[in-house]
Amino acid sequence: MKKEWMNAGVAEQTVELVLAFDRDGAISYGNRSALEKLGYTQEEMLSGSMCAVFRQEFQKEDGSYINFDVSLLKDGQETVMYRKNNACFPVMLHFTADEDGGYLLAEDIAYRKNMDIRIRQLKEEEEANQKARNEFTANVTHELRTPVNGIKGHVMALSENVQDEEVRKTLDIILYCCDNMSAIINNILDFSKMEAGKFTLEEKEFDFYKMMDQIIATHTVAINKKELQLRVHIDETIPQLVIGDELRIGQILNNLLSNAVKFTTVGQVSVDVSKTMRAGDEVELFFMVRDSGIGISVEEQDKLFQSFKQVDASITRRFGGTGLGLSITKQLVEMMHGTIHVESEKGKGSCFSFSIRLRTGQNVDESGDMSETYRNWNNLTESMEESGHEERLTFGTKENREELRKRLEKLVLSIELGSWEKAETLAQTIKVLTQDRESELKRPILQLEMALRKENYEKSIAAYERVKETLTAMVEGEEEVR
Ligand code: ADP
């Protein structure tokens, strides 16, 4: 083999170091590269020994060498080679040997090693920078929440005593802007947490139908305002109690629903939920949020789930937003072991569908644990579909009185327990449930929201009593009329 190389001049041309040696480790050949890199003349090389070149393997502590043993060098091994001037450099060995000696080809990997170290350093630097950026974003966004909530609280307090319709409208716009700003701040906060790998999901038992109920109620005002038709269908076999992150499932649905409403001017928005699989204590739920809005072209659909991507810059000007919503939604769905898809046609509407897996609560009844509200909800939607009835579905009025009573009970419980956020959500859904009569309730419910936001127990209870009184008076009034 050595002869063939030398004859062909291959060994002389190669950039790697080539050495041939006998069974005692005496070097019998070194190519040009070996001479250059080890700093030997031809004569020195031919009188040299493998032990001096591979001191890591063969040198004793006192500086003398052990007998050469070829088995201490292995093919594919990374080691160091020593120059005449005692400096060393890292190499990777390619090796063949027999009882008479062998040949080796040593690849100088100093450059690669340095590159690896540099890449690692750059990566570490980038990670540290990213971490600092994320922490900064998280801190800033967190700090931004306080003034936004402050503005909101004061505007709400102002609206309590305002009679002038124009001023009220302006205050409503400020409140609307504050809500938008809060949504953007929350999105940025979630996004930076996800980027920093600090985002975790909760695992808590919750009532699936109640959650759906609240989510739908949140969007009803906007849907009614735009005079859109809302259809909701929920598979009755979905267990009532499931275990997962209620807040984050709500976030996914809220994002899809608010987009559906935002981008639809005529027609309908629909929500379908079905159970696609049940294995052991796990269920897979499949959600579809459809709209008959502006739609998204196929090319634009590709960019949809990427961060900071909005389909069209003019959309940002027209509708606002950061383009983070769907990217966060996708990450949330994936964290819940699901996938998300979009089907859409420009001008014809869109359908966003996603699946998630949840564990089920203990007392699950496979025959279906659907709450009364949803049974009515489904029945009503179905009968409307069958009859082709075009009437708008309003989540309020008489049918929901029982629901209202339950919410009030929960609200007072939440106040007692100091669950302020939950209480605030409940107060908002009560406002939605009673939207037809909102003028009578506006003042007490605003006072309630204010007190809840300030987390003031006494004021919250007092405001709660006023809301309850007003509601009772409204119901009695209604009864008298009948
Ligand atoms: P943002 O967080 O700014 O609301 P999203 O990530 O939720 O952004 O949505 C990004 C973009 O995708 C929107 O600006 C819009 O162009 C498009 N889009 C999302 N949902 C719909 C929909 N239902 N109909 C039409 N366009 C949509």
Structure characterization notes:
The chain is an alpha+beta fold and 482 residues long. The protein folds into four domains: 4-108, 2-Layer Sandwich (Beta-Lactamase), CATH 3.30.450.20; 121-196; 204-379, Heat Shock Protein 90, CATH 3.30.565.10; 391-481, Four Helix Bundle (Hemerythrin (Met), subunit A) (Up-down Bundle), CATH 1.20.120. Helices cover 54% and strands 18% of the residues. It contains 18 helices and twelve strands. The protein has helices at residues 2-8, 10-13, 32-38, 42-46, 50-53, 55-58, 110-160, 165-195, 208-225, 246-262, 298-303, 313-319, 325-335, 372-387, 401-417, 420-433, 438-453, 457-481; strands spanning 17-22, 27-30, 78-82, 88-98, 101-108, 204-207, 229-234, 241-244, 268-279, 282-291, 340-345, 349-360. A hairpin with a 3-residue loop joins β11 and β12 (349-360). α15 runs antiparallel to α16 (420-433) and α17 runs antiparallel to α18 (457-481). It is elongated. It binds adenosine-5'-diphosphate. Adenosine-5'-diphosphate binds next to α10 and α13.
Entry keywords:
482 residues; alpha+beta; Beta-Lactamase; Heat Shock Protein 90; 4 domains; five-stranded antiparallel beta sheet; binds adenosine-5'-diphosphate
